[in-house]
Amino acid sequence: MSADPRVGIGLDSHRLEAGRRCVLGGVEIPAEAGPVGHSDGDVLLHALTDAVLGALGQGDIGDLFPPGDERWRGADSSTFLAEALRRAAAAGFRVASADTVVSAERPRLGPWKERIRANVAAMLGLPHDRVGVKAKTAEGLGPVGEGRAIEARAVVLLLPLPGDPTR
Ligand code: MG
After folding, report:
1. How far is the CA of 128 from the centre of ligand 1 (A)?
2. What is the model's pLDDT at position 2?
3. Average pLDDT estimate for 100-115
4. Which pTM value belongs to this model?
5. At what angle do helices 113-124 and 43-56 cross, to 10 degrees?
């Protein structure tokens, strides 16, 4: 085991469908369409979960929570992030910072991004200034730009927990 910092990256995309709930970073946003997914389809939490798992070298969200598994149907994606954070702590790491980008043509996320950031920071146990949430459109290009999909990207930095004698 080494005391080196770790970084991880995550990317997630979901198709948007009319009438689905739209949950992003654990915040429900009023929208005409929401992501289709086996769970609640929260692309931001899925990307963050994958970033943490990647930094730990522990596979990806699909390995831990297979989409065909009935246990995760409609699941609150904070469950997935909590499990990744539990694994980080078990491996002797804490999340030191996280940066994210959400790409969507609709709903417009600008008015929501600070609330999403606060919620994600609380989930990660971090002060606000260690978490970034950027909201982008795709300038009308591709499935995101056409309003048919939503995407999120996340990068996390993990640092060793203080006081671990093995580090
Ligand atoms: Mg996903």
Report:
1. 24
2. 59
3. 95
4. 0.94
5. 40
